[in-house]
Amino acid sequence: MLELGLPDPVRDPDLPARVRIHEVGARDGLQNESSLVPVEVKVEFIARLADAGLRTVEATSFVHPNWVPQLADAEELMPRLAELLARYPGLRLPVLVPNERGLDRALAHHASEVAVFASATDTFARRNLNRSADEAMAMFRPVVERATAAGVPVRGYLSMCFGDPWEGPVPIAQVVRHGLTLLEMGCTELSLGDTIGVATPGQVKALIDEFTRSGVPVDQLAVHFHDTYGQALANTLAALRSGVTVVDASAGGLGGCPYAKSATGNLATEDLVWMLHGLGIETGVDLASLTETSGWMARQLGRPSPSRTVRALLGPTA
Amino acid sequence: MLELGLPDPVRDPDLPARVRIHEVGARDGLQNESSLVPVEVKVEFIARLADAGLRTVEATSFVHPNWVPQLADAEELMPRLAELLARYPGLRLPVLVPNERGLDRALAHHASEVAVFASATDTFARRNLNRSADEAMAMFRPVVERATAAGVPVRGYLSMCFGDPWEGPVPIAQVVRHGLTLLEMGCTELSLGDTIGVATPGQVKALIDEFTRSGVPVDQLAVHFHDTYGQALANTLAALRSGVTVVDASAGGLGGCPYAKSATGNLATEDLVWMLHGLGIETGVDLASLTETSGWMARQLGRPSPSRTVRALLGPTA
């Protein structure tokens, strides 16, 4: 068993006692991988993540196979995951759905939880979804309403909350307006994404505080930070201080935004867990087991993990 | 000129308005480089750092040349730096001195500021200095006293403040005792080092608060974090919240602790400046110019910068 060397935890009374990690490595992390990962490897990856104690593992996306060939095996993957749901009580395996057609496929495969991926800016909405941000919201509304009617909770991702590569800074009022729309149409959780990683802690606090001032309970908010400029963990700390208790992260730091200038992307789950456990914040995650899983996945992909913790614990080529 | 894409700053009233960066790239960053960097390159590096607005640039070490061959050119470097001191008002170019012999050499070359490198743990003191932590303090006392008598201020580095690779967690009382000794013998600034990068924000707050409770003015404290587990910037944020206004960092993330398991080491100055400027905290640093300097230095060393910001702005091979 891997020896961690994590010092004794020291609590900060202003931070939450427990954080739920929304693990995105199997979906967001893999979706931009050019070489196709076999479905057996994906099943084992998700099983190992569950085994390491993660209880929310985003599994795949019912996007059109032409858009994201890496996730074209969603139909094949879903029945393989049913056994995991039985084995790990409390395990949640949400899937992304881009539109009603995607929802139909997800429901046909008994998805118990789905997510939609909206944008706070028009330019990114047009590039990613081929319509304005408002038009994208109109497209998501029947998805959210039908899923909700079917008893399937919906997470709303809101991307480009702090900056957009084409538009630059994004006004808080615009982000809050789109976020409120997602919640009003029935999303049970709103994940605020810094898709290009430009945010710093003051912006994070300002945005979360503006949402709570608008009447959104803080436990409906999640944060999704990218480490493009190394800011993800400092931003997470600011979000926790503002009361957020759901944090998105990607095992081994897999994935990233194809529009960001650097390959560095998602906050690595291991770096997040190191901080949380050091702060005495419960996650339910076994960091040694998670790190070994990311080392194993890095070998499957044939390149080192960008997670600092994974490299520190397994060696720089892990 | 490099376009940064940093969003408009958002201040946090609990954080300081200004931070002084103690730039260690030219000394701590280069000291473990195996291929010798020509003195002309070092002069240009330090000049470019000053030109980017850094005003405390640790320049070299008067350690015995056999110990650190990379810095064996200290005598050659010093006269070349005199012109910089004249060109940039307020520029400080401290140098490390390991013992009295080193101090003699530094004073002979008109060093206006020096630093000693102590350890909070016995094991690291024995490995690094061949004596116990207390014996090392006894060795530093005449160095600090003689420098002070000569009108040369002394910075005290205290390493392994949060964990030691051989001893594990380090008791706060032990760290504070050694830190107070350095201040009591005359050091004007105490840099608290997380040499192996294991700390998390709760530990940082606890240690700084214990120093201030012991009567140390917070403006005598600096922090020196390593990014081994990705924690450096979150820890910096915690230190700023506890009132610290002096932060050590290394341009481009150069250097690291040879005893840490990973090559990842010092907090990159660019990642730090990104956060500080995003928080509206003044540093005097021109981030574009600094980033270009680190890109230039990476080319001199023949390998990419580990700084996330440098890679995001210049491309992953910068």
TrEMBL record, chains A, B:
GO-annotated molecular function: hydroxymethylglutaryl-CoA lyase activity; metal ion binding
Annotated Pfam families: HMGL-like
Keyword Lyase recorded: yes
Residue intervals of the Pyruvate carboxyltransferase domain: 19-291
Keyword Transcription annotated: no
InterPro entries, A to Z: Aldolase_TIM, HMGL, PYR_CT
Listed GO biological process terms: ketone body biosynthetic process; L-leucine catabolic process
Family the entry assigns: Belongs to the HMG-CoA lyase family.
Name of protein: Hydroxymethylglutaryl-CoA lyase
Organism: Kitasatospora griseola (Streptomyces griseolosporeus)
